[in-house]
Write a sequence for this structure.
């Protein structure tokens, strides 16, 4: 029962973050929101009895993907300014 | 006997989560990013440590990994907040308007002046 | 001097490995020795961080005292932050001040910066040579010597003995 | 306007499909036949505690081989796309110096992070974790090293070497399975050992170690490529 | 539990699809793709979930004899494990393309790329 309530809150947070990631004008905030989506999704995976997938999602989905996005964004900004 | 240990663990976990809640309240109430980093770092460090200690009391089999986690949090949390604050100061995120003094700022402005001069020299040559 | 680095890093890694596995069986110990040796040899070609730790009994004794001083400061800082957050008028008086440090070793300065970040109302922003720039949530004075006395000295006297 | 209308119609039709799918979803109450077979026979056949690991490495080993190949292709295409000229490589960039604190901390933290990665893939057959997770953890350790020393570059030749050697060894270990056991990527080349020990489950820990090294070096190559292209413009 | 996550996955999938189709910025489209990936993973995992059971690891909590009645389906988890790693490779590939496109056109607006239109 408590798990179900937790899952409902997490799912609402995921949906709100997904909407922010899609519609927000600032790219930085959109990228961070998509990282947060991955982080919450890894908690959902843990609640669904899949610890392997949760570890992978936390390490790759919310860690490395965000870093790669920021490297590319940094590069694009430097190109447009200089 | 086991029951008392678990109740103590649950109480410690609850205290830790209260500190975490106060930290997140501080994130909302503080006026500028430096003060937010201060509130966030301290409250989240002690909150995480207390939560992990509570879990270690509830589940003594995991205590080795949890002690390791506590040491790791103690080492990495201040470093990350220091890097965040330094980057924020470098890209000129403004301080709170009631700020008394900013001794780091003076040196930075001098540096910026020098680099401006360099740029001006370059443009003159061209 | 260089072999001391390798030995300390190896022992730290082995201790971490045994804590992670939380058992002392011969299989786990042997795998841990091999893995720690490889990582030590790969990463410790030019690291000079660990050679500055002093391994005397006095340093060990001071380290234990330092843990207690530090835990007290950490708990005090949390109540301080909680009080400031909960008070409706938000009693803060922030500013960036400079302090001086006597420590020379890199790891000692790292631990000093970490301790300052986790104690009441202070946050290390930058460190240049022997001057540290600190964001203070409640500035009491802007004089460098007084700030040093207020913020740094209570940790420094222990860290000076431990790390030199 | 027409475009928005078309998008709306597309999403509405998708939602109709999903509503149908959701209404027909009953939720499982028991394992299907294949999973039942795995759960019953895996401990005697392969001897790994973690069923997911045994499926990834042995029962579905071909999938993993193809997946690692796809990752390798992605890494090499990125390297090909973002190749920079030799003349640009020599240019000095004027970067902000990292703080002394981060530099010191990275020297302490990076070996610990690598040890954690090794722990995750060496215990892949006992606890949650495995080659992919361990490789990702090692790649994030490399990212910390890059953040602490922004002037340094990833040594691509070194990581390509590690990657190709571990990939080659992975295939060789699979071929050993044909010769000594019953098929490609069979793990019964080595004795199965005691159930739950770190030296158990035959070849699975070895294979996962090589998958971990391969994934870690590939991800490091990708991150390094995307980082180095920042040089071109200055 | 599985119903909640299943419906979250469906809604998230539609959000991602809407982002892919309606956004003009290439980086935003790639963000839509990552959300799409995560949504599909959530759906697959929640189909394999059986309520009241634990993770497919046969340690002290799950003895080998009772494994069939105590664990969830391990096959979808194994598939999703590989899918996540591939999604990182694909995302990095798309970002590399975006970098290259930005270098030639100096813009990220998808409407400006009309070279293949006639």
């Amino acid at each position: 029962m408590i798990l179900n309530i937790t899952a409902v809150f997490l799912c609402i947070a995921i949906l709100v973050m997904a909407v922010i990631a899609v519609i927000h004008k600032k790219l930085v905030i959109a990228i961070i929101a998509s990282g947060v989506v991955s982080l919450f999704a890894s908690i959902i995976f843990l609640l669904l009895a899949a610890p392997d997938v949760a570890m992978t999602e936390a390490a790759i989905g919310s860690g490395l993907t965000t870093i790669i996005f920021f490297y590319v964004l940094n590069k694009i900004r430097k190109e447009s300014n200089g | 006997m086991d029951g008392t240990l678990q109740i103590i663990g649950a109480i410690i976990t609850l205290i830790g989560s209260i500190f975490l809640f106060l930290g997140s309240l501080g994130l909302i109430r503080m006026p500028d990013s430096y003060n937010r980093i201060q509130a966030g770092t301290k409250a989240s460090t002690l909150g995480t440590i207390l939560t992990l200690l509570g879990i270690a009391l509830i589940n003594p089999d995991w205590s080795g990994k949890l002690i390791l986690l506590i040491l790791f949090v103690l080492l990495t949390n201040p470093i990350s907040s220091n890097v965040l604050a330094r980057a924020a100061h470098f890209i000129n995120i403004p301080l709170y308007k009631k700020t008394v003094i900013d001794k780091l700022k003076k040196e930075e402005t001098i540096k910026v002046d020098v680099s401006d001069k360099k740029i001006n020299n370059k443009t003159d040559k061209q | 001097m260089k072999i001391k680095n390798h030995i300390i890093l190896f022992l730290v890694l082995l201790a971490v490995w045994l804590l992670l596995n939380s058992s002392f069986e011969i299989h786990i110990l042997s795998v841990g020795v091999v893995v720690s040796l490889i990582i030590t040899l790969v990463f410790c070609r030019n690291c000079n961080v660990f050679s500055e730790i002093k391994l005397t009994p006095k340093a060990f004794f001071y380290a234990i005292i330092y843990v207690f001083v530090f835990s007290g400061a950490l708990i005090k800082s949390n109540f301080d932050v909680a009080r400031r957050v909960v008070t409706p008028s938000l009693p803060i008086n922030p500013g960036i001040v400079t302090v001086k440090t006597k420590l020379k070793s890199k790891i000692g300065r790292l631990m000093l910066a970490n301790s300052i970040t986790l104690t009441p109302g202070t946050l290390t922003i930058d460190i240049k040579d022997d001057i540290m720039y600190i964001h203070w949530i409640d500035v009491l004075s802007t004089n460098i010597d007084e700030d040093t006395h207020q913020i740094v000295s209570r940790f420094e006297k222990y860290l000076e003995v431990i790390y030199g | 306007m027409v475009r928005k209308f078309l998008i709306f119609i597309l999403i509405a039709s998708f939602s109709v499909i999903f509503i149908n799918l959701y209404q027909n979803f009953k939720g499982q109450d028991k394992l299907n036949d294949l999973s039942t077979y795995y759960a019953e026979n895996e401990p005697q056949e392969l001897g790994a505690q973690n069923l997911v690991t045994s499926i990834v490495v042995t029962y579905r080993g071909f999938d993993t081989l193809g997946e690692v190949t796809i990752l390798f292709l992605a890494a090499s295409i990125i390297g090909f796309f973002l190749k920079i000229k030799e003349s640009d490589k020599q240019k000095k960039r004027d970067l902000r110096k990292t703080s002394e604190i981060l530099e010191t901390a990275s020297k302490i933290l990076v070996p610990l992070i690598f040890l954690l990665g090794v722990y995750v893939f060496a215990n892949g057959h006992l606890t949650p974790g495995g080659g992919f997770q361990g490789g990702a953890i090692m790649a994030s350790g490399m990212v910390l090293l890059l953040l602490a020393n922004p002037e340094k570059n990833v040594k691509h030749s070194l990581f390509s070497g590690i990657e190709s050697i571990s990939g080659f060894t992975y295939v060789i270990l699979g071929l050993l399975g044909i010769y000594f056991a019953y098929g490609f990527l069979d793990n019964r080349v080595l004795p199965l050992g005691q159930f739950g020990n770190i030296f158990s489950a035959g070849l699975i820990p070895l294979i996962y170690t090589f998958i971990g090294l391969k994934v870690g070096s590939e991800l490091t190559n990708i991150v390094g490529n995307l980082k180095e292209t920042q040089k071109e413009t200055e | 539990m599985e119903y909640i996550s299943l419906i979250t996955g469906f809604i998230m999938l539609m959000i991602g699809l809407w982002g892919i189709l309606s956004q003009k910025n290439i980086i935003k489209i790639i963000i839509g793709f990552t959300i799409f990936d995560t949504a599909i993973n959530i759906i697959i995992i929640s189909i394999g979930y059986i309520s009241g059971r634990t993770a497919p690891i046969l340690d002290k909590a799950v003895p080998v004899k009772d494994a069939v009645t105590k664990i969830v389906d391990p096959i979808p988890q194994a598939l999703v494990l590989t899918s996540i790693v591939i999604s990182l490779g694909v995302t990095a590939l798309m970002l590399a393309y975006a970098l290259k496109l930005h270098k030639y056109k100096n813009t990220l607006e998808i409407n400006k790329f009309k070279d293949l239109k006639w």
Remarks:
- Residues 2-29 of chain B form the longest helix (28 residues).
- The two ends of chain B are 83 Å apart (CA to CA).
- Residues 2-97 of chain B form one domain.
